[in-house]
Structure formats: C-alpha cells, structure tokens
Design goal:
Layout (H helix, E strand, L loop, with lengths): L6 H16 L9 E7 L2 E7 L5 H5 L4 H14 L5 E7 L1
Parallel strand pairs: 2-3
Antiparallel strand pairs: 1-2
Helix pairs in contact: 1-3
C-alpha cells in the first residue's frame, strides 16, 4: 500500500476531524480544520476558541490521541504519520 494518500483521503480526514471536534467544543463557529501533506505525513491544523482547546486535547492528551488514531485509520495507510496540532 502506498504511503501517499489521495485527495479523497485527505478530504475525508478533514471532514472526520471537523465532525468529531464539532461535537466536543462549545463554540463550533470558531472552529477551523485545515489539512496538508508534508514529506510523507499528513498534517492537520485545528484552530479553536482558546476555551475549547482543553476539551479537544483531553485529560493527558487522550482525546487528541484518539482523534489521531481515527484519522490514521480513515487514510487507510498504517505507515502514514498523521500529525495533529491544536491552536487556540
């Protein structure tokens, strides 16, 4: 299996992350999710209201780790690194 996802996979990850996080935050209107491919890894940048950042990351980083796992699974390539950054 190729380590480079196609455009549909990248769009699917963006939609999945937006959907999951939209249900976690109090201010979904302040939410922005952007994806990009960088040297064999998929980078997802989440911009959210500062009050919602803790909800996205979760206690001990458990929530963001779970989101990263789901994003990696939706791409379909276990060797592809998925990096998720949360800014607020």
């Amino acid at each position: 299996m190729s380590t480079q996802p196609d455009a549909n996979s990248v769009e699917r990850v963006e939609e999945l992350v937006s959907y999951i996080i939209g249900g976690l935050v109090d201010n979904p209107d302040e939410l922005s999710v952007e994806t990009s491919l960088e040297e064999g890894s998929l980078r997802v940048i989440i911009e959210a209201d500062p009050d919602d950042v803790g909800k996205i990351i979760g206690r001990g980083g458990r929530t963001i780790k779970s989101i990263r796992t789901l994003a990696r699974a939706s791409v379909g390539s276990p060797s592809l690194h998925v990096d998720i950054d949360v800014e607020g």
